[in-house]
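Weekly sync, protein design subgroup
Attendees: M.S., D.O., the rotation student, P.L. (late)

Item 1: inverse folding check
M.S. brought a backbone from last month's batch and wanted to see whether the design step gives back something sensible before we order anything. D.O. pointed out we never logged the input encoding, so this time it goes straight into the notes. Structure tokens as presented (324 positions):
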């Protein structure tokens, strides 16, 4: 699609393009908000990415600030075809299953973290915001205006870059349908708010089951040789890590063995949390687990947690708190 100057917001000044933008992160709430000022989208389960389009190059930056351009060749190729001078797209890289649902495990395999039949070319980007466009920093604009410009920019894209569609529906009904179809949840965005980095109630996530990321601070060995019995998890509260319980399900035998091998590489004699556990092996707080759970107990522990995958790696300490 050829760039049209008519897409450019009037009276917007020429702004220098930021090298990186910390993403806006949705706040977890129990119920969808009500009112015409709220827009709804599917909550995608993947890697949060910013696609920086500049004259002569495209960069893909992760939520943690790492350059992963070479891991997403199909997205890079399509970004070049947009024929934009400068832009920053905010979105989620995913791999879809046969039912059209995003699958984080399939995404990890496509990126080469585990043996897989999935190719990197199967990864697509669902773009849901436009932060910078044609010399203008759009973050000061309300969400509805950024959305209008994004729809124009991506009007003809259907390959590696897709527009994350807004759904015109009551939030509670949309959540019910999303859960019935096996989706992770929905996102609500306030149409009148500007883009703000960090966690904000202008974006709200409502999940079919609660899902978040926790730091792994150790493990308990399994009775099965070489495997893990339970992961010991922590969350950051008041500037420090606090133990939130153990997780003993959600992995295969093979995944358990691989996970233990990773953790044994970062063993430590100094626990990152105030915890005494006989037989436990403590680790440096460098790996992050994505965990699905039902609720919190009164003691601040996870209820019925299940391991869903790693969102971090110890060689660079990439931390993905939650995709969106």
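Designed sequence read out in the meeting:
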């Amino acid at each position: 699609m050829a760039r049209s100057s008519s897409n450019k917001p009037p009276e917007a000044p020429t702004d220098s393009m930021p090298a990186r933008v910390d993403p806006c992160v949705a706040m977890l709430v129990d119920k969808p908000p009500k009112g015409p000022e709220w827009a709804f989208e599917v909550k995608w389960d993947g890697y949060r990415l910013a696609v920086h389009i500049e004259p002569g190059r495209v960069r893909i930056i992760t939520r943690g600030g790492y350059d992963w351009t070479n891991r997403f060749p199909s997205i890079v190729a399509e970004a070049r075809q947009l024929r934009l001078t400068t832009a920053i797209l905010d979105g989620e890289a995913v791999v879809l299953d046969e039912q059209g649902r995003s699958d984080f495990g399939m995404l990890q395999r496509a990126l080469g973290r585990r043996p897989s039949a999935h190719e990197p070319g199967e990864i697509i980007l669902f773009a849901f915001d436009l932060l910078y466009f044609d010399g203008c920093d759009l973050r000061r604009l309300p969400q509805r205006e950024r959305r209008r410009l994004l729809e124009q920019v991506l009007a003809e894209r259907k390959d590696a870059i897709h527009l994350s569609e807004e759904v015109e529906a009551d939030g509670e009904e949309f959540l019910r349908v999303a859960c019935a179809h096996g989706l992770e949840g929905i996102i609500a965005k306030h149409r009148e708010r500007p883009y703000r980095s960090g966690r904000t109630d202008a974006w709200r996530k409502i999940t079919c089951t609660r899902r978040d990321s926790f730091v792994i601070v150790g493990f308990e060995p399994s009775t099965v040789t070489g495997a893990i019995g339970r992961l010991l998890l922590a969350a950051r509260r008041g500037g420090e890590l606090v133990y939130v319980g153990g997780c003993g399900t959600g992995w295969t035998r093979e995944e358990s063995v691989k996970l233990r091998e990773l953790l044994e590489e970062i063993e430590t004699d100094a626990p990152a949390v105030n915890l005494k556990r006989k037989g436990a092996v403590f680790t440096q707080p460098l790996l992050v687990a994505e965990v699905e759970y039902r609720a919190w107990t009164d003691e601040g522990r996870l209820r019925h947690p299940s391991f869903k995958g790693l969102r971090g790696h110890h060689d660079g300490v990439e931390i993905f708190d939650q995709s969106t």
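Discussion: The domain at 210-319 is CATH 2.40.50.140 (OB fold (Dihydrolipoamide Acetyltransferase, E2P)). The helical segments are 73-81, 104-110, 143-153, 171-180, 253-264.
Action: P.L. to compare against the previous round before Friday.
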